Every structure is written in structure tokens, then in C-alpha cells.
Amino acid sequence: MKLGDFIWRQSHYVRPLYHAYWQELNRKLCARKPGVPCVSGPFVAEHISTIGRIIKLGNVLEIGFNLGHSAYMMLDLGHASRVTSIDIRETDDMVKCVQQIKEEFSNRFSFFHGDSNNHDHWLHLLRSDVFQTGFIDGSHDRSSVQEDIRLCKRLGCDHFIFDDMHEKTGPGVIPAIIEEGGLILIALVGCLGVFRLADGDIFHNKP
Ligand SMILES: C[S@@+](CC[C@H](N)C(=O)[O-])C[C@H]1O[C@@H](n2cnc3c(N)ncnc32)[C@H](O)[C@@H]1O
Fold it and tell me: Is pTM, for the whole model, over 0.85?
């Protein structure tokens, strides 16, 4: 078996507790539908829980919200103090999920409808925020991921979580991290990669 396939398989192993948690989450948020390119399931709950024990997430900027499963879990599991999510789409299901998360977590959660790669119209809205972690899970094209890394750096993030590090679902993620540079790998948790900013990175400025 190739190493990549082994990593892919073991990343889907999950303890029973997280199956129940995932079911409850899907009861609250809209269940995922085919069409959005992502691989998800109870194992993501376990991975986010593990990451929360490795780094302090603090105030999180999430790029790519979809139906808010990761945003919800980061808040609910107590790992993020706040989450601000951005998504280029705004479907009826998404609006329902945004409302649900706002209802439960009130001012610990904000949502922006916008393109993370074209932030002229909305970046000023985030200027007063100080972020610690960028959760990068929007478009998985190399150039787009690279832009997202730059955006998170500009907004002060010193930790980065990349969903879909695997070539099957995120072919541009690893090339973008290598091309952009300045990030140090802390841990691989399933298909999520956790990185920190290298010491002395010169882009670590507020806009
Ligand atoms: C894999 S889903 C996100 C899943 C979510 N992070 C989670 O784990 O529950 C990817 C989302 O990124 C959004 N997206 C793609 N390109 C984007 C961009 N340039 N700016 C903002 N959002 C983008 C898509 O609309 C889609 O909803």
C-alpha cells in the first residue's frame, strides 16, 4: 500500500463518541450535500478536537464556511474564542447554518459573504480584529491557497490549519505552502495540517 493511501485510510478512523457528536451536529446544521468538494464525517470532529489540544486556536479566521461544521466544532469544543468565516457562496442552507451558529454562540461568531482572494470590499471590516489562527479551506487551487495564506498573515495569524492536505481533495494545498514559504509544520492530523509562522516572517503585519 502506498504511504499516501495508508494516511488517507487511517485518517478516517474515529472513536464511537464522535459518531454521536457528528449526528447531533448534522441535526442542528444542514447535512452536507453532494456538490461541494470536500470529504467530511465524524473523523473531522475528532481531528479538530486533537488540534485543539496541540495549539491554542484563539480568534480564528475561517476561509470557506460551506455549512459551518468546522466553525461550529471549533466554537462548541471550546478551542476557538471567536470564529469569523468567509464564503464566496451564500445559499439558503448556508444562511440557515449561519443563523443557527449565531443563535448558539452570539458574538463569538461572524460571517462574511465574499471572495477571500478579492478582499477590496470587505477587508476593512476585519481591521479592528486580531486573529491568531487561519483555517484555510476555501478553493484548493494552488494560487488561491497561496493568496489565502497571505491574507491570514496580513491579518496577524501566526498559526494555520489547512483542511484537505491530501492530493485527492486538496491538490494545490501542499504546493501553495511550499511556494509561499515561511510556515513550519507542527502536526498532521488526518488530512488537516497544522503550521506555525516561522520566526521573523516579515509579512506578519496588520493591513
Ligand atoms: C470544503 S468547503 C468548506 C468547509 C468548511 N470549512 C468545513 O470544514 O465545514 C469549501 C468552501 O469554500 C468556499 N470557497 C471556495 N472558494 C472561495 C473563495 N475564493 N473565497 C471564499 N470562499 C470560497 C466554497 O464556497 C465552499 O463553501
Answer: yes
